[in-house]
Amino acid sequence: MESLKQVNVNQLWQLWREYDDSDAYQQLVDKYIGLVDQVVKKMKVNLSSQVTFDELKSSGMLGFIDALKKFDYKRGLQFETYASLRIRGAIIDGLRENDWVPRSIREKAKKIENAYQILEQKFLRSVTDEEIMKFLKMDRQEFYQSLQETSFMHLLSLDEPIDEDRENTRRALITDSGETIDDKLDRQHLKEILAAAIERLPEKEKLIVTLYYYEELNLTEISEILGLSTSRISQLHTKAIYRLRGALGRQKKNLF
């Protein structure tokens, strides 16, 4: 039997969505506003210190308000889940619109991505750090520094929804193109490509991708589980994303 608390919440949604009741709207805001801080705190851990909490919260509020306007309480979904996705999506949009990644970092990331794409296509396996460093003509310190500088570009979910029905996702964030891969590739085909690419990752990188994107742990939590420093987890995660981007890049070249 549905609890009285849930009935009352549904009544608030009905009053707000069907009768535009401002009091019901304010009660819903008061009840769920804490979701914004929750999402921001989780995302802030994995982002550059250049991005402030308040900047993220400002974007997140737009997603929260949008969720309140579009949530369909009749579908039986949890608003917390729906709103969290909206908030994350709005924060990601804000980061991209504000061009928070310097051009020099973008160029460096592109060079590393190209190196993984070219070498892994050549050798048909996961390449080593030494092979990447030789190709890029970098020493170990320079290579690891580059991974660190570009790591915050990749700390966003591969599955962020970009539409109300949550059918299309943020998988396109692992490419540089403004056009999503889903515009060109069948969604199921894309899933197969990503699954195969993840399966080919070195074991530690595969585990980190699984824990981060599917178990939704942050890098600090993963570092505690694996007994490695957060910076080392960040490096491994960044290399994994470069490999996945390279795999999708090769696939696009083969098809188009």
UniProtKB/TrEMBL annotation:
GO biological process: DNA-templated transcription initiation
CDD domains with a match to the protein in the record: Sigma70_r4
Protein name as catalogued: RNA polymerase subunit sigma
Natural source organism: Vulcanibacillus modesticaldus
Keywords: DNA-binding, Sigma factor, Transcription, Transcription regulation
Signal peptide: none
Superkingdom assignment: Bacteria
GO molecular function, one term: DNA-directed RNA polymerase activity
Residues in RNA polymerase sigma-70 domain copies: 218-244
NCBIfam families: FliA_WhiG, PRK06986.1, sigma70-ECF
